[in-house]
Specification:
1 helix, single chain, 99 residues, 0% strand
């Protein structure tokens, strides 16, 4: 039969054996909690960035549409300018032939 003294010794031995393990587990959980906090903080930042992009995407697409429109207008103007240059060159060539 176990006596109270035996139980105290067993408890001491078990505590002595498991205490370093428990401390190591606590340390590991502390490191894991820190890593999870970092991941959570980064996730919040990404979430905020995505929210900002959603809120401002309309303005971005509007500006992009205006830019494309300006580019197309510029292409048309350059084509018209090219045609005018060609006509001018033809007129100059005609004048030079008349000499």
């Amino acid at each position: 039969m176990l006596t109270k003294k035996d139980l105290v010794q067993i408890k001491g031995t078990v505590t002595e054996v498991f205490e370093p393990f428990a401390k190591a587990v606590q340390t590991d959980f502390g490191m894991l909690n820190k890593q999870l906090d970092d991941v959570e903080r980064e996730f919040r930042e990404v979430k905020n960035d995505v929210q900002w992009m959603k809120e401002n995407s309309g303005e971005l697409f509007s500006k992009l549409d205006r830019f494309i429109s300006m580019y197309e207008d510029q292409k048309k103007e350059l084509a018209a300018f090219g045609m005018q240059m060609k006509r001018l060159e033809e007129r100059v060539a005609k004048l030079e032939r008349r000499r």
